[in-house]
Amino acid sequence: MTFPQIKPQKGSEIVMTHIKQQIQAGTYLPGAKLPTVDQLAANFEVGRSTIREAMSALKAMGWVDIRHGGGTFVSLTLPSEEGDNSGSGRFFYQTESFQEVLEVRKFIEAGCASLAAERRTEEDLRLLEVTIQEMEAAIGDESLSEQADIRFHLTIARASHNSLFVSMMESLTDRLQESMKESRRLWFFAERASVELLIQEHKDIYEAIKLQHVKLAEDRVMQHILKVDRVVHKLDAGSR
């Protein structure tokens, strides 16, 4: 006779589940500000890192918005409970569709970066610098940060000076926006990453293009997207 393996819950998982249940019960309404990290740590009698980890998970699942320097708020639009399998670690509900977008992004964007490193002009570099500056200025505003992120990738496509690549990237704009949003959430949660670290990855891609290192630019873009791809596979496997 075989028995299922029972994994003990981490403190952050217990906190996450409790806060999620409070949101679902209406204790915290959409748009409401949650207690501070210090207050929650005192209430749950855990360390602040445990609270931050719980909040990162809730943000990844779309239950809360974390505003840099402004606190944590319940999302105005809450996730649908239909097919919610968050207890097993699945943070989104259209895995296959999301996976397909990632697969397309890997090959199109790696090709764009390769050609951009070979063909970029001074004006292309200036526009890439502008988008990085916009990302830095948008720290604390996730919506503006996402838009700057998308512009960075579209600017690389335009720097390839291949009209078909540009058309393909522009035709994917809507899907790309959703992919970016999910990618950022998953990457921040799984890697415990910061916005600053994400911006540094974009700077590294920019430097490879600026120095006309074709293979390095291609590799850095591919690794940038593969990080999220690995997280998707891990979470999808954990949900089965």
From TrEMBL:
Alphabetical list of Gene3D superfamilies matching this protein = GntR ligand-binding domain-like, Winged helix-like DNA-binding domain superfamily/Winged helix DNA-binding domain
Cite the HTH gntR-type domain residue spans from the record: 9-77
Superkingdom is Bacteria
Q: What InterPro entries does its record include?
A: GntR_C, TF_FadR/GntR_C, Tscrpt_reg_HTH_GntR, WH-like_DNA-bd_sf, WH_DNA-bd_sf
> Which CDD domains does the UniProt record give?
WHTH_GntR (cd07377)
Pfam families in the record, alphabetically? Answer: FCD, GntR
Q: Which terms are listed as keywords in the entry? A: DNA-binding, Transcription, Transcription regulation
Q: What is this protein called in UniProt?
A: HTH-type transcriptional regulator LutR
Which organism is this entry from?
A: Paenibacillus marchantiophytorum
- Give the encoding gene's name: lutR
